[in-house]
Design goal:
Low-confidence stretches: 1-7
Structural class: mainly alpha
Largest sheet: 2 strands, antiparallel
Strand content: under 5%
Number of strands: 2
Radius of gyration: 21 Å
Distance between the termini: 62 Å
Helix content: over 70%
Mean pLDDT: 90
Shape: globular
Length: 436
């Protein structure tokens, strides 16, 4: 029996590797031709590269090895720019090279999502579960241009994946914390990912002294990084961006819950047992629906460019729909569905409740962190939402469910994202951006 189990485990591992290779080849096929062709397009997604990221990188390269970190034309922490400038000194500073490196972080995030899907889910199903993240416009965009959305997210995915699979082992949790610290130095908003790692430490039953030491480190090191940024800039962004970004925008909460309202039904439809496990008239469901409703009407949600309520298809739809007292009529049903859908995924992971709770804490922390900045761009929330929904879905699937799992709804979701990407990313290689 042991030999048979070992053979089965080895076969599963080989299947996982095979499907990871398929993912990598598919992503390369979707992005590398754009890089290698030299197409730049008349506008759209390439503008962040031109206006922000490439100028910072050129500045750091010209000042190497002592770049001036006190002021530069980007709102982001300097970590990724320093990383690229460093490897640019060693391997070449061509723009195409920088684009390829940046795309590897986007691909790496998809591969980590797929690799950390619980082993009870088959390799082929794990591949499908990872497809929606790959097909997102921001994911494909990050494989074509020099953007900074995914380097920090790659580190967050690594840190959360290590925390989720740590089984309470402090060494693995410490590795997760280090990944998050690096993510903060790449993108300061990444500090939200400290919260779920802290939850995993609190759930641990490992050595008490080591747990206390790690909790202290989880508090002090991120605080030290952010304090250093504040001393350097007089705020949490370089000076030129402080007026624009350092204002709260609670519409981020509305957007996160509404986006959950779009994607969670596809995951729930892929495993109908998730529906059967929920008592739909329970106080918990009513409470979640109430939270969704309040989050959709408690503050203005109508499209407004100057107030940071713009950037993405949902905002574009909201712009064309009626509003009442500054509240778009689109968001209440979506936000209610999102809050209830998140509960259904969490509730379905009954045998994995601690890990599922950690992921829900991650989503809440991400939502709260983004509510502190001015721009409620849809692309900020899409990758974390797809990551955490995918893992919650994997945790909720037991072995009996996995054999009957109708993975088609998730494939349909991925196809929808790719259709959107075709319009917003590939179309813009030849024509102006349709949402501009």
């Amino acid at each position: 029996m042991l030999v048979e189990d070992a053979a089965k485990s080895g076969a599963n591992a080989r299947n996982r590797v095979l499907w990871l290779v398929v993912t990598a080849l598919l992503y390369a096929a979707l992005t590398w031709p754009v890089i290698l062709s030299g197409i730049t397009g008349p506008g759209g997604p390439a503008r962040d590269e031109t206006n922000y990221h490439l100028p910072v990188l050129r500045q750091f390269l010209s000042q190497w090895p002592h770049p001036e970190l006190g002021d530069y034309p980007s709102a982001l922490a300097p970590g990724y720019y320093l990383f690229l400038a460093g490897i640019g000194q060693a391997l070449g500073d061509g723009l195409h090279f920088f684009r390829l490196v940046t795309g590897l972080f986007a691909l790496g995030s998809v591969l980590l999502l797929q690799a950390f899907v619980p082993s009870r889910v088959s390799a082929a199903h794990a591949f499908v579960i990872a497809l929606p993240l790959m097909a997102l416009p921001i994911t494909l965009r990050s494989g074509m241009w020099l953007l900074t959305d995914f380097p920090a997210f790659f580190l967050i995915t690594l840190g959360l994946g290590l925390a989720m699979t740590s089984a309470g082992k402090i060494r693995q949790l410490a590795a997760a914390a280090i990944a998050i610290f690096c993510a903060i130095y790449f993108r300061q908003i990444s500090a939200w990912a400290i919260a779920p790692v802290a939850v995993a430490v609190l759930q641990s039953r490992d050595n008490l002294k080591l747990r206390i030491a790690l909790m202290v480190m989880l508090v002090l090191l991120p605080a030290a990084i952010l304090v250093k940024f504040h001393q350097l800039w007089g705020g949490l962004t370089p000076p030129a961006f402080q007026t624009r970004y350092q204002r709260p925008n609670p519409a981020a909460i509305t957007m996160v819950l509404s986006y959950l309202g779009i994607v969670t039904p596809f995951f729930i439809a892929a495993s109908p047992s998730l529906v059967r496990r929920v008592r739909w008239n329970s106080p918990a469901v009513v409470a979640c629906a109430t939270v969704g409703l309040i989050a959709s009407v408690a503050w203005p949600t109508a499209y407004n460019l100057t107030e940071g309520r713009s950037g993405g298809p949902l905002w574009s739809i909201a712009q064309r729909l009626p509003s009442l007292a500054g509240r778009s009529i689109m968001f209440p049903p979506l936000a209610i569905m999102g809050a209830v859908g998140l509960f259904a995924l969490w509730n379905g992971a009954r045998s994995q409740r601690p890990r599922a709770t950690m992921l829900v804490v991650a989503l809440v922390a991400m939502m709260a962190a983004h509510a502190t900045i001015h721009e409620a761009y849809e692309r900020y929330y899409q990758p974390p939402i797809m990551l955490l929904c995918a893992w919650l879905f994997g945790l909720a699937a037991d072995e009996k469910d996995e054999s009957r799992m109708g993975i088609l709804p998730i494939a349909v979701l991925a196809a929808g994202f790719f259709a959107l990407s075709f319009v917003t990313e590939y179309y813009t290689l030849f024509r102006p951006h349709p949402l501009d």
